[in-house]
Amino acid sequence: MTDLRPIEPQGDTGLPRTYLPLGRMVRLLRAQIEAATGASLTFRSPGPPALWSATAADGKAVLRVAPGPLLSPYDSPETGLSSLRLSYAGRPLGGEPPSPDFGDLLRARGLAGYNRFARSLPDGAAELFSGQARPALALSDPQTAASGAALRSFLTRLLAENPGTHFVAAGPDGCPRDGAPTDPRLTLIAGPADPWLLFPLAARIYVARWDAACEAALAGFETHCPDPAAGPRPADAAAFLALRYGIGVHGFDPWTRRPIPLADAAERVAWLRDRFLGNDRRVVLVGVSGWKRAALDVFATGPAGPPLHTMIADEAVALARAQGGRVQAWATRCPEQLPRLCAEAGLPFARIEDGFLRSVGLGASLEPGASIVVDDLGIYYDPRVESRLARTLKEAEFPPGLTARAAALRESIVARRLSKYNVGLEGVGEDWPADRRIVLVPGQVEDDASVLTGSPQVRGNLALLRAARARNPDAFLLYKPHPDVEAGFRPGAIPEEEVRRLADRVVGGLSIVDLLDRCHHVETMTSLAGFEALIRGLSVAVHGRPFYAGWGLTEDLAPGADRGRTLSLDALVAGALILYPLYLDPVAMKPCTPEQLLDRLSEARAAAPPSRLALSAVRHATMRLRYALINPVIRRLRARRGVRSESGR
């Protein structure tokens, strides 16, 4: 039997100070293993090997690394694991006994394995356990399911020792068919199944090893292990818990990979699991460019699997029907007939667009975004149809806890000097007058859908600049070209002589945050710069109908802007930055909160030297060629698919 006395990595224990990281999995998890053991994984000095394998009681001087029992649906060696099981020379390495209430936490959250199972059992699963002679459950725990030989041995033994019993083999990570024997008394549930829902259905519960019985014991069900080598049955639920989650098991933050108490890791895994379960149907994504797909796939993956991609409306509907799924289309790439086809087919449909805290770099330069909105009503930049954001802001309650969180988020954005794209040079305004009102006029991309649909009277940068000067004749007027326009990617440039006649300074290439720090007032059509000015306490005049206008916080100049409700600034922030978008940690490639994304954006901006566009000269030239030569062809192909050109992107 395995010696279960732990080896503590601290102090002078005689443990190696270095290990040889053998295999790709170990190298991917190097930082986590080093943090848990206090040792270095390196080839520069001799040491025992560190191997990716299940813990073995062979006594060899090997550091064995295996997935721990607590994992999020998004975990992998590439993205980091929320727990690891470590052993050295056949004995558990480090870790602590679980706290007395840890079992209650697991039971309340319903956690097990990678937590990729749905809230309900797969179709037909419950019927397998119906009838007078209910079958027994052969619990395929994650470690057993990962080994075809172990799974086959477990199920073969059960069938041989229980000749009159029917079995259903299932588990939280599924039960692979290629590892199971063929027998009429054995039925497999191949996909992940919630073990907490299976336990009360089974006549008896069998496990391959006693630690796999932990969740059943916590739920109050007796289990049976047919393998004599597994040793005696643990005495009670606490003993089962200690066997599975105790010594040798290390918890980690799923995003930063830093060691944390196992209970904290469980709460974070539960948050990620709930986010995963939000995709309760298979998602078909339409119009998503290849460079965006890695991020969008994370947002759209759920228990039914990763999203399917297409560019064609009819194909999207056919795929969604076949999968019992839903359709989501990139808003500016949505075939015009797609919403109607989805409605006729009874399929849920939503539009996708970038969120308001996006990246360090421009979308036009193919920098992937770290936030999106998924809108099942309209889209936030088009006021012609009510969006989910508009309805939320109009109807939702904003309790004190939510607005307090929004206030803290707003203050953090301001303190960290963050914006949507986080590009531009710093240090401005040394020669600006101190005795004049400074007004910022942010230019926009003139064929952008937000301008075409949301600014009915002032519909171009020159018209905006003229209106701003007419309204502020004595102000020191700053004109900031949109970064995409300034880069030459998108239309909206104003002739130089017109700019010089109307504006006191052209502040292209400068950071929007630095500009807002020096301004008193902003005049805009629909630019997000107006929202960024609001959260910094500036006055904002709006010539269009952006999402932040009409709530009593802006001077609204477009007809029909009033929303019929007055909001506080923090209620607006709560709706726009907390309730409406989804966020992605671009390093861990896992969903995250807006607060966590602020950390990543701050780190990325600090790592990149300030520049006008946050891209190199070669990348800039390449992108200009792409927009000049390739994009016109792409737009013609989209038109053939029914994508109406409300945006030149």
Automatic annotation (TrEMBL):
* UniProt GO BP: polysaccharide biosynthetic process; polysaccharide transport
What is the top-level taxon of the source organism?
Bacteria
What is this protein's record name?
Answer: Capsule polysaccharide biosynthesis protein
Source organism of this protein record: Methylorubrum extorquens (strain CM4 / NCIMB 13688)
